[in-house]
Amino acid sequence: MARSKRAGDGEQDGFSAEERAAMHERAQELKATARRRRPAKQEEEARAVLAKIAELPEPERTIFTRLHTIITANAPTLAPRLWYGMPAYAKDDKVICFIQSAQKFNTRYTTLGFSDGALLDDGAMWPTAFAITELTPAAEAQIAALVRRAVGEVAE
């Protein structure tokens, strides 16, 4: 009789090492958040985002820094925080957009993603994640418009 594969028995559990590491980071973030008070929590979370960005190798550090600046300038109602070990921006404690590292998740490009809380609805389907290989002035303007739209700060 064949032995079934179980998580934790040293065999594949369906998650990559990067995904397991991200889940572990998220659990640590939740524990740290539960211990903080509201005003201190927001300040500490913003510092944690900047610290995480500073840890990134180039060229991602530059891309993440520009994205952070664009997002915070165009959607000041969003609060920076870590989400699965990566920068995210939340409104009323719900993540609206996030940035994923190509290097951390072994992908070809940095990803700017939007959750279902983002107000990007456009007909029967619309994109919720964008690949970023470099930030040109045109790409920065497009991202700024997307972020404003995501938080409902732009008329359609």
From TrEMBL:
<dbReference type="Pfam" id="PF08818">
    <property type="entry name" value="DUF1801"/>
</dbReference>
<feature type="domain" description="YdhG-like">
    <location>
        <begin position="61"/>
        <end position="151"/>
    </location>
</feature>
<protein>
    <recommendedName>
        <fullName>YdhG-like domain-containing protein</fullName>
    </recommendedName>
</protein>
<feature type="compositionally biased region" description="Basic and acidic residues">
    <location>
        <begin position="17"/>
        <end position="29"/>
    </location>
</feature>
<feature type="region of interest" description="Disordered">
    <location>
        <begin position="1"/>
        <end position="43"/>
    </location>
</feature>
<dbReference type="InterPro" id="IPR014922">
    <property type="entry name" value="YdhG-like"/>
</dbReference>
